[in-house]
Amino acid sequence: MNYSAGIIPYRVNDEGEMEFFVGHPGGNHWNNRYLRMFLKGGVEGNENWSQTAVREFEEETGLTLSDEMVNSLIPLGSVLQNSHKTTIAFGLHYPDIDPNTCHSNLADDGSCYEIDSYRWMTYDKLKEVTHKTHLGFYDKLISINNETY
User: Fold this and answer.
1) What is the DSSP string of the chain?
2) Radius of gyration from C-alpha coordinates of the chain
3) pLDDT tens digits for range 79-137
């Protein structure tokens, strides 16, 4: 079984709706698909899931998370994404990410950026363009936010 882990940054917009920070995968395979996903990637070496999630987020955005932010990660659980991959997610309240200033690392073969664009999306828009097995992560963040406010 392969494992990937990532972070779902979120914020609340001026209309009171939660928005989630997502990216579009780079490369020719994804050029004509309007798929948007939270930033995640495979576990390397002896990393734990939160270490993987932080490393992948930093590699795929060019941003650095402070220790305080890392300690604020919200475990959202895991899902079987497909028959050979389990995905683990963490939420993070990080409202001031500017999609226009993010930049991704190159894919392992150097052919393209792993993420070629970024944006904030509401759940209603995101549910139409993301991996269906990931919807529970967003539902959980919405539920946690509703309990908080």
Assistant:
1) -EEEEEEEEEEE-TTS-EEEEEEEE-SGGGTT----B-EEEE--TT--HHHHHHHHHHHHHS----HHHHHT-EEEEEEEEETTEEEEEEEEE-TT--GGG--PPBPTTSSSBSEEEEEEEEHHHHTTTS-GGGHHHHHHHHHHHHHH-
2) 15
3) 998 889 999 999 999 999 999 999 999 988 888 898 999 999 999 999 999 999 999 99
